[in-house]
Amino acid sequence: MENWFRLQTPPPEPFPTQLPGITVALPDTPARLSRSTALRRAFDVFRPSYPPALPPAAAPQPGDESAFSYVPPPEVQRATLVWQPRSLFVSQSVVGQRVQRGLLALYVFQEAPGARTVRDVSGVGPELSLTIRDPNRVTWLPGGGAQISAPNRMSSAQAATKLFDGCRATNAITIEAWVRPANITQRGPARIISLSADTNRRNVTLGQGLRDTNLPADVYEVRLRTSSTSQNGRPALATTASSARTELTHIVFTRTSDGTATLYINGVAQVPGSYPTPPDEQHYHQGQVLGTFQNWERTFRLHLGNELTDDRPWLGEYYLVALYNQAFSHCRSAASPIC
User: Fold this and answer.
1) Confidence of residue 44 (pLDDT cuts 50, 70, 90)
2) Phi and psi at residue 236, in whole multiples of 5°?
3) CA-CA distance, 251 to 129, in Å (whole number)?
4) Are 322 and 105 in contact (CB under 8 A)?
5) What contacts 276, CB < 8 A, 6 or more positions away?
6) What percent of the chain clears pLDDT 70, i.e. is strictly above it?
7) What are phi and psi of 195, to 5 degrees?
8) Chain centroid offset of residue 286 CA
9) Is the dihedral of CA 190, 194, 197, 203 positive or negative?
């Protein structure tokens, strides 16, 4: 209702430098559309969302559960929009059009240059904002996105209790990330997303590159702690070699309450990688993570780009990170927005 009211009853237009929403807009973009056209497009569930550069695919039709992405019309592909936090169209294009069921935290990296904080824009529970350890090592990209080109870290100032409470209640999780790795040689694994205390204790981590130098670095790995895995989340789930590339990539990890774990890259379920491990250890599994989240630790903080110990840096670009306490099917988790 608030969005409807704001479209129908706009406030007096402020001086351009005071505009809080869209700062750059080309013809036939939301800032210059008529109210009726803007309203129709704003609530079109198949409207282009975030990020703007999606892999080529046919536009999904209503009821088509296999659709991965949406190709914007030519006039939208040509337009360059710059979104800012707290604007009407950010709310509609990034948050409002994404599924709300199970959403716990959402980061869209729309902060201004020099920002020291990345806001949680999920609107769910207490805001879990992330403090940037060194703002000078973050480049804010035109149109949205944060580039980390030197070791850094974005961390919550307090324990991520809403992630703990939400996932522990369902024993299910979905982690979604739109990222672009800076290289395919970083390992550790290099921490893309981590809910953890240090290099040996975690609830869940999405990373790039396997730890051992004789194993591939161009892979993604997820370590998930359950009552059947170690406090380090092992055995882990890893993709096969050459699955990580230096291009804009949509990564989704889901784990259902019955233990089925799947990693999707650009909407395609990945075959789990099988790698040699010591005879007395099992480091990697093939898609089953049994047990519950009852042994998760409530005190762990959320980190992007590194471990709290600052010795597992990941370099690259962040465009979106979302965490849910539901396990979505691939057609839901791979679509953008999640429908």
Assistant:
1) very low
2) -105, 170
3) 22
4) yes
5) none
6) 65
7) -110, 95
8) 23
9) negative
Return the percent helix, strand and coil in the chain, to nearest 5.
15, 25, 60
C-alpha distances (whole Å) from 123 to each of 93, 156, 241, 277 are 14, 16, 37, 43
Strand ranges across the sheet with 130-132:
117-118, 130-132, 154-156, 301-304, 190-196, 202-208, 220-224, 237-238
Instruction: Give the chain's length.
Output: 339
Q: Residue 94's pLDDT is what? A: 47
**Amino acid 283: pLDDT:** 65
- Are 304 and 148 within 8 A, CB to CB? no
pLDDT digits (tens, 9 = 90+) for 11-42: 554 444 444 443 344 444 444 445 455 544 44
pTM for this prediction: 0.72
Angle subtended at Cα 141 by Cα 220 and Cα 223, rounded to the nearest 5 degrees: 20
CA geometry: angle 205, 208, 210, nearest 5 deg: 95
What is the helix (H) or strand (E) element at residue 132, kind and residue range?
strand 130-132
Which residues 6+ apart lie within 8 Å of 274 measured at CB?
284, 286
Task: Provide the pLDDT for residue 281.
Answer: 52
